[in-house]
Design a protein that fits this description.
Bound molecules: ligand MTE, molybdenum atom
Oligomer: single chain
Mean pLDDT: 91
Number of strands: 11
CATH class: Alpha Beta
Largest sheet: 6 strands, mixed
CATH topology: Sulfite Oxidase, Chain A, domain 2
């Protein structure tokens, strides 16, 4: 019997929507297909917030727990990251421009315990994803407010999402509300549900082996902008 994860594993990438220039080919991970669209993918309902009460909580292996308001984050050093993004459902998008706070700048505000080696990103609605702290120390990890010089749309994660360019896009949690520093690794939502713990698109680390309810061409039928 073939599970949906097995079908996705064996599936060919959808036909490219656009021909890809050979000089760009090295930027497209194996099994991916390039799109200029911006598909919208998530579990559950798009959350609604009042920015006056919205906050971001930092907890776990830290010297003291902190809660940041929207304005406090907006007043930190803002930076731009332009990156390629790769979704496990086989779409990739090049040169996505994001603006926000570099994770390394954000960390200057926090005293992380030396024992902390992993991070759990907590997001609405009931979403989480785990990433090694070392990965988040890269120079292109962003807490993003804006995409394409405009505030994130509600469906793409307004008011704040994480952007982790070097891992499959499910690690780039939308609607983030909490950052938990951890001594030991723990699995997030998709990692518990059959996706790979590490998620390097160039190594095609899509699955850990269990069944996943996502058909291979799902993204082509999804909403996008
Ligand atoms: N909070 C939250 N963030 C999430 C998800 C989710 O279900 N909930 N899905 C992830 C997945 S699987 C992908 S591919 C990207 C999609 O982001 P986009 O809709 O902006 O393209 O969001 C990621 N972040
Ligand atoms: Mo995804």
């Amino acid at each position: 019997m073939h599970g949906k994860a097995d079908r996705l594993k064996g599936a060919k990438a959808p036909k490219n929507q656009q021909p890809i220039d050979s000089s760009l080919q090295h930027r497209l991970p194996p099994g991916q297909s390039l799109t200029e669209k911006f598909p919208i993918l998530h579990e559950g309902e798009v959350p609604a917030y009042d920015l006056a009460t919205w906050n971001l909580r930092v907890f776990g292996e830290v010297e003291e727990e902190r809660t940041f308001t929207y304005d406090e984050l907006k007043n930190m050093q803002q930076s731009r990251v332009v990156c390629d993004i790769h979704c496990v459902t086989r779409w990739s998008k090049f040169d996505a421009p994001w603006d926000g706070v570099l994770f390394t700048d954000f960390l200057k505000e926090i005293k992380v315990n030396p024992e902390a080696k992993y991070v759990m990103i907590h997001a609405d609605p009931d979403y989480d994803t785990n990433i090694p702290l070392e990965d988040l120390m890269r120079e292109d990890i962003l807490l993003a407010f804006d995409f394409d010089s405009k505030p994130l749309t509600l469906k793409h994660g307004w008011p704040l999402r994480l952007v982790v360019p070097h891992l499959y896009f499910w690690k780039s949690a939308k609607w983030i509300r909490g950052i938990e520093f951890m001594k030991e690794d723990r699995e997030g939502f998709w990692e518990r549900n059959g996706f790979h713990n590490t998620a390097d698109p160039f190594l095609e680390q899509r699955f850990s082996g269990e069944s996943i309810p996502i058909p291979e061409d799902e993204w082509t039928r999804k909403e996008f902008d």
